[in-house]
Specification:
With 310 residues, the chain is an alpha+beta fold. It is built from six helices and 18 strands. A hairpin with a 5-residue loop joins strand 15 and strand 16. The N terminus is likely disordered.
Length: 310
């Protein structure tokens, strides 16, 4: 078992497995890991694990102070609002950390999906771990899923270099933007290298890869427009230009728009660039205060042009 440098994180050391020798597995860029059930592997589609046996475990990192608010979503009434029927709620500890484990079922069309939700908190973060599995002859047992959830472990934040190396794409030219954090297959950069969005007066760019094609050649214009308009952090959006083009052997689409930041109401300039390649797509979304547009649009373009899948 790996040793964590910060004593506070020791509360999340993985519980011993039956064999007593397995180490927690950490998805790229994630501080949360666990010992996955047999046959589950790190997902390329989300932060967590999945199996061809119709099961998945999703890992969500939240601030340390979010534990009480998150616990309020795990009541019988709150789960019913999510169409989840609670079967059991258990107060327990993961290592020395207080946790709650809820089991239940959720109707998904004609199918019933079994659910397990673990919420655990320690001084530096709150871990939300959601497992789901279908019924069937090869389904995971309740004990297999519970053992995996009770093995949750938290590690120190990986260095930025390690986080960048774990991404499924490379950024050749950051154009003066600084990496702030990664999450799964996405990277956040800002021009000051600080947390926060345009409400703080800084430019923000997100680079993310999807393992799915997203849309066929004839639907890409509509797909790109729908993706941008679905961003709830932007309002009153007006497209200035939208065009598809071919570059470096791949199909691209780019939109430049004016909008307002939904939170602050400040005018912003937006650039979305999508690159389709190898059956997947990379999306680069840049947002900046309107007054910075003359400088920032060219920097957004430089960065977007330099991004390529591994």
């Amino acid at each position: 078992m790996r040793r964590l440098a910060l004593p506070a994180l020791c509360a999340f050391l993985a519980a011993a497995t039956a064999a007593g020798a397995a180490d927690a597995v950490f998805p790229p860029g994630s501080r949360i890991g666990l010992v996955p059930p047999p046959g589950m592997v790190v997902s390329k589609r989300f932060v967590g694990f999945e199996s061809p046996r119709g099961a998945a475990i999703t890992l969500v990192e939240m601030p340390a102070g979010a534990a009480d608010q998150a616990r309020a979503t795990l009541t019988l009434e709150a789960l019913q609002n999510q169409n989840i029927s609670m079967k059991e709620r258990e107060e327990l500890k993961v290592g020395d950390a207080p946790a709650v484990l809820v089991t239940g079922e959720q109707q998904a069309g004609p199918n019933v999906v079994r659910k397990w939700i673990l919420l655990a908190s320690e001084p530096s973060l709150t871990a939300l771990v959601i497992a789901q599995a279908m019924n069937g002859s090869d389904a995971y047992s309740d004990a297999e899923i519970r053992n995996a959830l009770k093995s949750v472990s938290v590690r120190q934040p990986p260095s930025m270099e390690d986080q960048l190396a774990s991404l499924p794409f490379r950024v050749g030219d950051r154009a003066g933007l600084k990496p702030v954090r990664t999450a799964g297959a996405s990277l956040l950069l800002t021009d000051r290298g600080e947390q926060g969005g345009v409400e703080t007066g800084q430019a923000v760019m997100i680079v993310a890869q999807s393992p799915d094609p997203g849309a066929g050649p004839d639907q890409r214009d509509a797909f790109a427009a729908a993706m941008l308009r679905s961003n709830v952090s932007l309002k009153e959006m007006i497209f200035e230009r939208a065009q598809g083009f071919r570059q470096r052997g791949a199909e691209w689409h780019e939109i430049v728009a004016r909008a307002k930041d939904a939170g602050s109401g400040k005018p912003v300039i937006v650039m979305q660039t999508i690159r389709w390649d190898r059956g997947s797509f990379l999306r680069m979304l840049g947002v900046a205060p309107e007054e910075a547009r003359d400088d920032i649009l060219s920097r957004f373009r430089t960065l977007a042009d330099s991004v390529s899948p591994e």
